[in-house]
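The material for today's practical consists of a large collection of protein records. Read left to right, the backbone structure tokens trace the chain's path through space. An example says more than a description, so a record of this kind follows:
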Amino acid sequence: MPVFDGNGSKLVHLGLSATNRNTADGIVCCQGPEINLAPDMVDTKKFACDKMMIYNGESAAVYGPFSVQGEVFSSRASNGALNDPSFFSYYAMASFFLTGEHREYKAGSFSNVSPLKSYGSGGFGAVELAARYSFLDLDSGEIKGGKLSNISVGANWYLNSYSRIMVNYVRSELVDVGFANILGTRLQFIF
């Protein structure tokens, strides 16, 4: 974390990771649109491999009510017969608080947002607008799992530090197949 002021309203986070997973029973890589209840749209089906190496780079920055964040993932499965298939994905997102709050960062990750004035306690709560783009490529050699991209826009209304209402629109494209348009809402309570 090369930049961090005392209250976290200005920060830059950088991270790298590598993971070696034992996958002796085989592996399946699959994903749907960025809505929890949506079915998978890309799927490698189960294939044999001994292990999978996963590499990740991430960054995030907060400057008052504005924040950006992104990650890149790359993986390689150990299977000589399939020429060691590799997969790739990334996302980038940005958000802005209309009411002046900032994304809170604790112990290496973003945490609950605390509105400057909670709803019902003399305030309106916190309102955040967000946009995100993601891409996943599960095609590699003989494995044709598919390519999926998502464009998401949304609004979050944090009533207080423990509850929020979310509305998201997601446009998912299964490359060379078609689109899905999804409107999702959620009421969340944090315990």
